[in-house]
């Protein structure tokens, strides 16, 4: 028996690969036959063994950012916070600097005005004496009134009048008398008016001061009353 006769004849398989069903006329979806499925499976296994299965994707953070991106974001936020703190500190320092400059500027202006007013005090004394003697009249008086009004509007203020309570911080006593008509140290005569500019005293007022002291008759009555009281007690 020959070799061809000894081998079993493979059955003949007829496959209908037509895409249109001749009986229904509908389109058919071709399905892979057993050989094709086997070949595809074998090829898939071969590829898996040769190249290995595909690597699974690395887990990503929940927020969608990688760990490197998260660390970089934290560093940037820290820098933003530091720069914001520096900006606030610089803004506060600049505000304090502006206040200090404005305060110094006002102080310099006030000192300059006070210096000019202080230089004019002798002129004001002359005008006051001229008015006391009746020589301040006409155009001379008009000019004097304008000068005094300008100085007063700038902050110059005169003080010192008869009847004021004596204050050693603003009064300069050059005469001292006693009287029973006053209840305490009182200014009775103003020899030179004092001036202040704002809270600064440019010149104290030169005055005469009178202290309280009982007169002779009152003192005698007081002494007699005390003698009578002592006699009754005896």
UniProtKB/TrEMBL annotation:
Gene3D superfamilies according to UniProt: 3.90.20.20, Head domain of nucleotide exchange factor GrpE (2.30.22.10)
Domain of life: Bacteria
GO MF terms held by the record: adenyl-nucleotide exchange factor activity; protein homodimerization activity; protein-folding chaperone binding; unfolded protein binding
Ranges of Basic and acidic residues composition bias in the record: 13-29
Keyword check for Chaperone: yes
Region (Disordered): 1-80, 212-234
Record-level GO BP terms: protein folding
GO cellular component: cytoplasm
Extent of Acidic residues compositional bias: 47-58
Keywords assigned: Chaperone, Cytoplasm, Stress response
Localization in the cell: Cytoplasm
Known function: Participates actively in the response to hyperosmotic and heat shock by preventing the aggregation of stress-denatured proteins, in association with DnaK and GrpE. It is the nucleotide exchange factor for DnaK and may function as a thermosensor. Unfolded proteins bind initially to DnaJ; upon interaction with the DnaJ-bound protein, DnaK hydrolyzes its bound ATP, resulting in the formation of a stable complex. GrpE releases ADP from DnaK; ATP binding to DnaK triggers the release of the substrate protein, thus completing the reaction cycle.
Self-association state and partner proteins as the record states: Homodimer.
Family indicated by similarity: Belongs to the GrpE family.
Full protein name: Protein GrpE
Species of the source: Saccharopolyspora karakumensis
Gene giving rise to this polypeptide: grpE
């Amino acid at each position: 028996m020959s070799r061809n006769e000894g081998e079993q004849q493979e059955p003949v398989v007829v496959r209908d690969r037509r895409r249109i069903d001749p009986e229904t006329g509908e389109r058919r979806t071709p399905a892979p036959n057993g050989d094709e499925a086997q070949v595809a499976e074998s090829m898939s296994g071969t590829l898996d063994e040769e190249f290995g299965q595909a690597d699974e994707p690395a887990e990503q953070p929940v927020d969608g950012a990688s760990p490197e991106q998260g660390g970089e974001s934290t560093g940037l936020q820290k820098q933003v916070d530091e720069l914001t703190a520096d900006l606030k500190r610089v803004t506060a320092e600049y505000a304090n600097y502006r206040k200090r400059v404005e305060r110094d500027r006002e102080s310099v202006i006030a000192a300059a005005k006070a210096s000019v007013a202080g230089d004019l005090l002798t002129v004001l004394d002359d005008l006051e004496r001229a008015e006391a003697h009746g020589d301040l009249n006409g155009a001379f008086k008009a000019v004097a009134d304008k000068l005094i009004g300008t100085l007063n509007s700038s902050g110059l203020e005169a003080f010192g009048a008869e009847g004021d309570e004596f204050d050693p911080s603003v009064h300069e006593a050059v005469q001292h008398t006693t009287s029973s008509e006053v209840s305490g140290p009182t200014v009775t005569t103003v020899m030179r008016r004092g001036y202040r500019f704002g809270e600064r005293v440019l010149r104290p007022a030169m005055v005469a001061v009178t202290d309280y002291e009982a007169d002779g008759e009152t003192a005698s009555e007081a002494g007699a009353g005390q003698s009578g009281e002592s006699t009754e007690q005896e």
